[in-house]
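STRUCTURE:
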């Protein structure tokens, strides 16, 4: 599970202060596929980083059981001056896995020809994206986080990547942020609604979608 206790996060000050989360206290159960619904600009990306343990709240505590992956497309987890094998060995230290195996899986999934002494920063932008996705999928995490869309697979690796993602996600909890609740119908079985600093968990996606639409309509009526 992921538990939030009186979690606050805000940016700016005075009239320009934007509260992402204001005093959220709730529990996200394991084994669920949870849609994080919020209008653009509400702070869904920031909230995902907080849930993933990459960003600290201003106040409050976030506790989690199980291994948490970083949100897909988040690239700062790679050591840019380290080789692919060295990055794999870092995973070994962090997650108690076989570092050589992780590096080999990441290389295979990326389709990149890996140089034994070549640091990550020396690969092309497309190769880096493929390797980051490969590393993200090389370990079975307990929690995965998706910010709007999954990254595109490397060239000619689409079917393999799709199969691995489906397998990893099937055995994990997923929190998928989107502004379009219909996008995740048939996949997510629960929902979180983030609206003007208030974060609410719903046991079904239908309930979350209804609350999200109602909040958007109320917002629109206030602007008229």
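SEQUENCE:
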């Amino acid at each position: 599970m992921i538990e939030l206790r009186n979690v606050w996060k805000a940016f700016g000050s005075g009239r320009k202060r934007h509260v992402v989360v204001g005093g959220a206290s709730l529990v996200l159960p394991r084994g669920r596929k949870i849609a994080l619904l919020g209008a653009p600009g509400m702070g869904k990306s920031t909230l995902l980083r907080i849930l993933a343990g990459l960003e600290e709240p201003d106040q409050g505590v976030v506790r989690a059981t199980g291994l948490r992956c970083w949100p897909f497309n988040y690239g700062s987890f790679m050591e840019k001056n380290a080789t692919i094998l060295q990055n794999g060995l870092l995973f070994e230290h962090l997650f108690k896995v076989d570092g050589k195996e992780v590096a080999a899986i990441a290389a295979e999934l990326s389709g990149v020809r890996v140089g034994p002494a070549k640091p990550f920063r020396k690969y092309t932008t497309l190769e880096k994206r493929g390797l980051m996705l490969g590393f993200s999928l090389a370990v079975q995490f307990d929690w995965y986080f998706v910010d709007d869309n999954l990254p595109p697979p490397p060239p000619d690796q689409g079917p393999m990547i799709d199969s691995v993602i489906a397998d990893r996600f099937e055995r994990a909890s997923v929190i998928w942020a989107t502004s379009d609740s219909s996008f995740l119908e048939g996949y997510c079985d629960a929902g979180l609604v983030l609206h003007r600093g208030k974060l609410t968990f719903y046991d079904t996606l239908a309930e979350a979608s209804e609350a999200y639409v109602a909040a958007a309509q109320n917002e629109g009526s206030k602007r008229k």
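REMARK: Residues 181 and 209 are 6 Å apart (CA to CA).
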